[in-house]
Amino acid sequence: MKKNWWKESIVYQIYPRSFKDSNKDGIGDIPGIIEKLDYISSLGVDVIWVCPVYKSPNDDNGYDISDYRDIMNEFGTMTDFDKLLTEVHLRDMKLVMDLVPNHSSDEHFWFQESRKSKDNPYRDYYYWRPGYQGGPPNNWPSFFGGSVWQYDEITEEYYLHLFSKKQPDLNWENPKVRQEIYDIMRFWFDKGIDGFRMDVISLISKRIDFPDADINQFNEIITRYYANGPRVHEFLKEMHDRVLCEYDIMTVGEGPGIDLANGAEYVGESRGQLNMIFHFGHMFIDNGPGGKYDKIQWLLPDFKRVFNEWDELLKEDGWGSIFLGNHDFPRIVSRFGNDREYWKESAKLLATLLLSLRGTTYTYQGDEIGMTNVAHLSIEDYRDIETLNSWKEAEAAGRPMDDFLKIVHLNSRDNARTPMQWDDSTYGGFSLEQPWIKVNPNYNNINVASQEEDPDSILNYYRKMIRFRKSNPALVYGDYKCHLKEDPNLFVYERWDDQKHFLILLNFTDHEIEYQEEIKGRLELKINNYNTRNKSMWLRPWEAKIFEVINS
Ligand code: ISL
Ligand code: CA
């Protein structure tokens, strides 16, 4: 296995709007991030990934970009950004930005031109099609509800938008569009940034014959028509050969439709495309056939299978990304742990998992203090376009809205977007003014300041686990073997290289369980998420133990 800095990196993801407000307008910003760099560095983080900070009308919080070479007004200026980059580097960390190449904002100059006339030089920067029988060109549904086609009166044609109508899809078939994106990438690399997380990279090539979808399962529509289109690897290879190969940077692509059948094609080292991808196997584990607003109970054997199969797929050629949540998904302790009776234990157990699997590990802001989902009583307190659109659709469909509110509580992307909880002052120390989105009312109990003081806190456990991972390369590069694959309660695995050998025991339940397999060798307890350490094979509720196996 070839070693690389990005394989060993601990990545910390920042959602700037919700991280820290420095100028009392209730919106997180770049100077706010700079204020907190010592904190981030104190965790042991190597790489910071910031979600989009470019100019944007914020229809989708920065994932709708109107100028790729400038900074969003609310977040600061280019001078602030340059300072951020310098300060990150001064602390021996790296900075990765979010690249959103699949779509721009409808307020981008390209789109403003494109919509003007059918012969405008920018017309083919986007997908324009005539209507069909008085309606849109086909029946494809958008990620954010409604059709993917928006009618534009000026030229009496429709444009494609897989996300909101303010996020028109860029036409990657047009070589000029590709060149524009490569130039933008170079602009940021030449400033000295250390990589890109690439938004919905799986969608840049799609079925451009635009056939009607003949099914109504959204997930299947994605894989059949939107994702992994015929030219996606040709485009990525071109991007790599024209830009990426010239810089010592890291890339991680994300996208719906990336699965075990195609994942290796994105990251195989000999293929020269991306370093890593985020797949959503475990992120959709509690979605029923109707998608994310059709919740089902997730099961541990399925969860383990996702990690096992991806590890198996990438172990010879490629590299994994290990994450349990991000700005698009519920809080990890609420989703995969028990955020009530075993809040602390289960948050620490998830940290143990995150930091002991093979792959680069990503921690989303606030997870290091066990931030939880939020349950606002009114839809008025939600901000996310996806949540609000699906609310409107559910209302129109006559669904019982009390029940729908419960699903929003479980699944809304805003669960991850409430302000970072720094201390117990008003607004959780995020801002001195009313934030753009309400603070989770539990900020009095869950915040950075109180956990700094407590040696037994989730925060200090993250620090300990990060140190432990860094001092044991077996946890980064070493082999992986899962035991008891079908066991519904325990997640047990070994990690080893020529130096060290570890056995990791994780109890994903509210009750005590004894681990009964026989292990050769002497076991030395190295990490335990309970402060009353216990080296027996009994696991208390949500207990996590890492043993070193000696003389095996
Ligand atoms: O959020 C999801 C499920 O709730 C995903 O399906 C998500 O829409 C998908 O992974 C793409 O996400 C990315 O691109 C979107 C943006 O809204 C997300 O925040 C971003 O992470 C469009 O740019
Ligand atoms: Ca601000």
From TrEMBL:
Belongs to the glycosyl hydrolase 13 family. Keywords: Glycosidase, Hydrolase. Transmembrane segments: none annotated. This is Alpha amylase, catalytic region. NCBIfam families: PRK10933.1. The keyword Hydrolase applies. InterPro entries: GH, GH13_cat_dom, Glyco_hydro_b, O16G_dom_2. CDD domains: AmyAc_SI_OligoGlu_DGase (cd11333). It comes from the Bacteria. Pfam families: Alpha-amylase. Gene3D superfamilies: Glycosidases, Golgi alpha-mannosidase II, Oligo-1,6-glucosidase, Domain 2. The keyword Cytoplasm does not apply. Residues 13-417 form the Glycosyl hydrolase family 13 catalytic domain. One of its GO terms (molecular function) is alpha-amylase activity. PANTHER family: ALPHA-AMYLASE FAMILY MEMBER, OLIGO-1,6-GLUCOSIDASE 1. One of its GO terms (biological process) is oligosaccharide catabolic process.
